[in-house]
Amino acid sequence: MFSAYSPRAANAYQRINIETSMHTIDQHQLVSLLYEGVLNSIATARGAMARGDVVGKVNAISKALRIIEEGLSTALDRVDGGELASNLGALYDYCTQRLILANARNDDAMMLEVMKLIEPVAQGWNEIKKNGVLAADAPAPASGQPALVEA
Fold first, then answer.
1. 89 within 8 A of 123, measured Cβ to Cβ
2. pLDDT tens digits for 14-46?
3. Could you give the CA distance from residue 132 to residue 126 in angstroms, rounded to a whole number?
4. What is the DSSP letter of 124?
């Protein structure tokens, strides 16, 4: 009647759930979730390092790096985003370098530094929607990603 628990089946279900969610949220919310994912991954890495869990630390930092490189950085509109997109790109590059060094050196201070750099950007991004100041006037980038234009 009931089958045994299968991690593979559970992972497949979770993946389908995530993919379905991705189609129902707006681009602004997606970027907010990316920022949240980076901050949570770094916090997880810090906790794992404090416990001496090397594999957990490496996996969490790897996740944070992928989110920055494949999510946040690729979402930047480097053509029409102007100075803001350029500055965010430089910030993401710096954070990537610091996380790689933090991983290699087991340096909690570097991970904390990245968190302190990303947190105000994430808070500012969330405030855009709260204040109703989205770039509705700006044309959407060809990539379908948000323009990342702040007021």
1. no
2. 555 555 555 557 888 999 999 999 999 999 999
3. 10
4. H
